[in-house]
Amino acid sequence: MELRHLHYFIALAEQLNFSRAAMLCHVSQPPFSVAIQQLESYLGLQLVIRSSRTVELTDAGRDFYRRATQIVRSANQAFIDTQNYAQSQAHRLNIGFHGSMIFRGVTEMVKTFKQQFADVRVSLHEMSSKSQLEAVMTGDLDMGFTHSLASISSHHVGCINLFSERFVLCMPDSFRINASSVDLAKFKEENFIIFDRDASPYYFDTITSICLQAGFSPKIEHHAKQWLTTIALVSKGMGVAIVPECLAQTRIAGAIFRHIDTDIVAYLQCIYARTADQTLIRSMVDIAKSHIRSARLPDD
């Protein structure tokens, strides 16, 4: 049974005349009559009583008419809804970001973009860099702002380096250090709060490398999956942490930030689906490059 069979039967039920019903369906009467017979054969029911002068619906025909109109109405609405959805998706940009992007100006980026593309709906989705890459590859995201990723093997994903940022040491304010920079090696006996490796292999390895560069292996006491959690733990005296400089903007009571001597920096990238609207992608990247920022701590 096809949808056209339902259309034909509805026309016949409303006209109660084969010729007029066939005309309304833009088909000649012989194939129209055959289609009605096919429908009855498929259902195993007689839907109409035919005579030389009249056409009358059977009880089964009247019941089927009610159900057929509901089916056709639902099918038409599904068609309309799908078209509307496709049109809305054509004017939508799904962007992934990690939490620290809040302190790098992501909200200002979106506002500026909306001024240029008022008809484009921008949706932000917070997730890890790894999850963003997976979402871009599956088409759930159009683009994402990620930390440095390992080599991207998919030909469907592009990558642009946006920004590099210094690392700083976050410590409890009970340390009462007035200088704007500290010698990281002097903190080798402190408990370190570090990003869980499963949450961010990049940050785990990078922060460990910074400590090794300073001549020690960090005493990892606590693991976190969010930067704000890391800083909150520091503020409560649970240890110290090496964090991107932008997080000095968090201004969480009980935590202070100081420069450390390292040439290792954090990198921010934009990944994007090559199948997405490249005009929108390029525009957002240009805006990101002009807006992205770090909270610069005062130098000595």
From TrEMBL:
Which range is the signal sequence, renumbered to this chain? none
Q: Does the keyword Transcription apply?
A: yes
Tell me the ranges covered by the HTH lysR-type domain, including all copies. 1-58
Cross-referenced Pfam families, in alphabetical order? Answer: HTH_1 (PF00126), LysR_substrate (PF03466)
Give the CC-aspect GO terms.
protein-DNA complex
The record's keywords, sorted A to Z, are: DNA-binding, Transcription, Transcription regulation
State if Transcription is listed as a keyword: yes
User: Could you give a GO molecular-function term held by this entry?
Assistant: DNA binding
| InterPro entries registered for this protein in UniProt | LysR_HTH_N, LysR_subst-bd, WH-like_DNA-bd_sf, WH_DNA-bd_sf
Q: Which family does it belong to?
A: Belongs to the LysR transcriptional regulatory family.
- The molecule here is called LysR family transcriptional regulator
